[in-house]
Amino acid sequence: MSLIVAAFGFGLVSMSIIAISAVGFTMQFGITNxxxxxxxxVMIASAYAAYAVNNAGVSIWLSLPVAAVFGxxxxxxxxxxxxxxxxxxxxNLIGMVIISLAVSLVIANVMLPIAGYYSVSYxxxxxxxxxxxxxxxTGEQLAIIGVAVxxxxxxHALLRFTRLGKAMRATAANATLARNCxxxxxxxxxxxxxxxxxxxxxxxxxxxxxSDSFSVASGSEFLIPIIAASILGGAGSPYGAMIGAVIIGExxxxxxxxxxxxxxxxxAFAVLVxxxxxxxxxxxxxRGALAAAG
Amino acid sequence: MLASHHxxxxxxxxxxxxxxIALAACxxxxxxxxxxxxxxxxxxxxxxFTGADAALGPAYFAACLPAAxxxxxxGGVMGHMVSCQEFDTRGEPADAVPAAQQMIASHSNLxxxxxxxxxxxxxxxxxxxxAHIPMFCMTGQSEFNKTTFTYxxxxxPPDEFDAFAMVGSALDHxxxxxxxxxxxxxxxxxxxxxxxxxxxxxxxxxxxxxxxIALGQSSYRTxxxxxxxxxxxxxxxxxxxxxxxxxxAEVKQLNNGVxxxxxxxxxTIDPVWFGAVTGAVGVQTVVDKFTAVDLGVSFSGPGxxxxxxxxxxxxxxxxxAPKYSQRGATLHLYDGIIQAALAMxxxxxxxxxxxxxxxHDVGNGVAGATTVNTYAAGVAAIKxxxxxxxxxxxxxxxxxxxxxxxxGYILVRYDASGNEITIGTLTxxxxxxxxxxxxx
Lengths: 294, 440
Description:
heterodimer; A: mainly alpha; ABC transporter involved in vitamin B12 uptake, BtuC; 74% helix; 3% strand; globular; B: alpha/beta; 14 strands; 45% helix
């Protein structure tokens, strides 16, 4: 029993990282209608950007904004230089998915000669370990959870209480109508790529901190739970992605404790399949902030 | 919107299926080996260069480059210059098949192929054998112990022997009695688990826990907590990529900063693995707590010196190459390539159906054969009408009837610079005794 409680505690960290990344991923889809399979690779590229700064002697926490800026700029350029031209030519959604898959492979293979195939670790201090019953978390892990909470609140505030957030929701609901109503949808989409790219960068850095070691190849592994959480919560719904992250994060850890670590992803995906069968639109598709402007 | 998502989902599935079929259908068959005049020859390095096992490919590429340099500096194989090319399998059989087919279809001048790890050997070896291309594989799978593939060669023992050597070393050298098995859930790593469990049981030790961990996860804290609760004396492990680094860092963290002793397979004697794990747990922890079994290589002698000279010289092509000077696999694959080249020289043929059977003879030597340690010396001996036996970087070769060769093991640890230090030896006979006692 104590192992399950401990696993629940570790699940809090996992779900925090998944939540940051999945919210960014699902917002990209919701606002720009783009299933960006290069997201995991941008995460890792951002993690390496933070590593470069951290390796130069800067605290990993001060390197975190660097990862955010790198992720934002990288994602923005990716859209402007690659995705947007294809979308303007009328490439359909499936075509865009394949393009993003190709972009992911290109990023990974360009990174290999730059970053190397070596795994790297941040210079970091996990801090003291705090215990609550069987749950044991380091100061660094608690800080990661804190970052996730702050990011989620910020996204909530952005979508609910700002003009930009309302414009994003309007663009997500019907871009043509939004444009006809005077909303500068092109600028909104640019800002959406910057914001979700920043989330992607932050997620990459905290995932690197949590895993103690990462490599270029880690991008594809990180992407799997992100997609699972996004779909589980309802594609395009940030709040759904948050709930999806909680479920996927906890299910993977608790199943490792109860069944076998070999099946931790299998169990998470079994839950995903079950939800898809019972509620194909995902958990919150109709109530998500981006699904309807209400 | 939702309905369109469903259509998209089905569309993506169909598209992926079509892509898979198209990729599988790519390539074809060709008849390599008939090269004209002094046209260049190619050595294919087919291995994971990306994916979870991306660290393996560079070790094999580092074998090919010095071998090609040694051959080319001696004038090539009957005048044919030799080069190396990477073919990425991503460590996945599904990717390895099209990679192998493309390699064969695109290159009719393949003289040999090296690599083929456990990740892809089962799918790649039949293709190479059918195409009559001599291969030197690093797979540890037992199914190749008595293979019918006549073009298959393996200069390293099967993984199960590694497992027995680990068990023997742990019990005899360190007197460990309680062992936690932490291996990646990939094909290559899991090949150790069954034999290790059998041997530990038969030799009176206890397996406290057997964890097959999913590679590349961002955390293994739940798994580590479960493992620590079993209080093992030592952790046996092979989980490549960043996986071991993540797992072991969390062991240290969740065990109040104290690292448990951990023992690796020969695959963990690798600069990439060393870099990853020391980055996560610290160099001194690895120096103090880590041991491994490695292939029985002395890292000395004229054959090794020739290899080392060429390895250092190819740093201009592959800067990391010198780091592989003590990677057993690198040494052995270098030897395999030189053996293939000498077999071509002996038979005066670039036709694999002609020179492939002679690789065995060059490795083991025939009656009256002259021992050579450099390719140039081998060519000179052959030109003077002698048969040759290659004793190279990895020492003597002892091919059996299935072209499997092995030489026993050494027990090693790392120094702070990542160099291997031998702390014990297991001869082939001692290894065989452990295998027998362990139920192998």
